[in-house]
Amino acid sequence: MLRPTVWPPRSRSRRLRAAVAQQRWPMQHIIGLGSAPIALFGTREQKERFLAPAARGDYLAAFGLTEAHAGSDAGATRTAAVLDGDEWVINGSKMWITNAPIAGHIIVTAVTDRERGKKGISALIVPRATPGMSFGKHESKMGLRGSVTAAISFDNVRVPKNNLLGERGRGFIQFLQVLDGGRIGIAAMAVGLAQAAYEAALRYARERETFGKAIGTYQSVANMIADMDVALETARTMVYRAAWLKDQGRPFTREAAVAKLYASEAAERVCRDAIQVFGGYGYSQEFAVERLYRDVRLLTIGEGTSEILRGVIARSVLGALD
Length: 322
Ligand SMILES: Cc1cc2nc3c(=O)[nH]c(=O)nc-3n(C[C@H](O)[C@H](O)[C@H](O)COP(=O)(O)OP(=O)(O)OC[C@H]3O[C@@H](n4cnc5c(N)ncnc54)[C@H](O)[C@@H]3O)c2cc1C
Known about the structure:
Number of domains: 2
Bound molecules: flavin-adenine dinucleotide
Number of strands: 10
CATH architecture of the largest domain: Beta Barrel
Radius of gyration: 21 Å
């Protein structure tokens, strides 16, 4: 995952530090997709200007890939950027962009050479408050409601030529690489949410009594706890393995997909079962397990749906068949 070795990671923003400490904003949203592309492909000047403040936590960053017609099929991007003298002029729109209206900068993928297909997509850095950029309403989401998600419109948005991130036409390859790393972060989020649900269920199974006995003494409840324990242990090991491979500079695309697929699906089961252990109380907003279940639901969708990941894994083990 992104390790700011050059820049002190300590945030200068007291508000942001407090929010992270209270876990209102998962770290994935702060140093994740909006910053990783700059760490991987940025010039020194881009890193100093955009990565340093994001890594210090002075501001949040965003990653604008998805469009109304281009989610899983992100290569179908329609947003376009044309070079006009020393500036890129961007037109189009993005959907479902985490942090968009509050981000200090947004990495935006856009078609720069339409006739080249996926090899004609590039990535550009758009700073906050660039004229011509506007945002849709904050999406009213099922979960993760502490994180802002909105659409973005680009109407002749101009950014300097040197805000191109990496090479022209490499945007598609770049975001595949960025998503590989992001998937480890999502898998880690899944482990964190599942851990919280597991610990709550464990406490409740010890304390809640029915028919004069703690519910944890009933085998059907104890089995749910045991299954949660196994799922968590397995998911955590997969996350560590994928992260270790990445840290070693070894290939990790398959392992990141395996970790994200398994951890997100296992975490959903763990959160579901935690509600079951709580019975009717688990269905109430008074208890955290209700929110954890809603929050965890996104993790089989964002940064590669479970269906897409099964395809990635199958292709990596089967090889090219056609
Ligand atoms: C809360 C939230 C935050 C988000 N944040 C961001 C962000 O910060 N930046 C960003 O760029 N995007 C973001 N997204 C978008 C997210 O990455 C996409 O929603 C996701 O990639 C799926 O795309 P889609 O919604 O268009 O679904 P679709 O691609 O339309 O898929 C619909 C269904 O079809 C299945 N499907 C599609 N193609 C295939 C296939 N080839 N094989 C098998 N099944 C297939 C999918 O698995 C899914 O079940 C966010 C989304 C949400 C909900």
